[in-house]
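User: Structure please.
Assistant: Input sequence and predicted structure:
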Amino acid sequence: MKRIFIMIMIVFGIMLSSCINSVKYLPSNSSINNPPTDSVSIYWEKPDMNYIELGLISAESYDKEALLVFIKNKAQEIGADGIIMKPMRFHQGGWVFTTVYILDAIAIKYNKKH
């Protein structure tokens, strides 16, 4: 009986951990390739400067504090100079009735042309 309980807990743990963190990127133009950046500026509203939108980054996790880190890491990976944050959303997820947080941001590249 104890062995069955342990197996159930292992399967439960694997299922739970397999869907905890998700980061997706939907590019605006798939032909644009930028080298990774070292830092990313965070904006809570559209910045007053010239920029192009690289695409939408969306992160999903049970850990809402980790969402911004996931988005910043993805933004650096795709060569963004900044991200414009959208409001956080959430829903009840999985069969364990936990809260899943969702955070979206628009990745931008500063337009150096005048």
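Confidence is low (pLDDT under 50) at residues 14-18.
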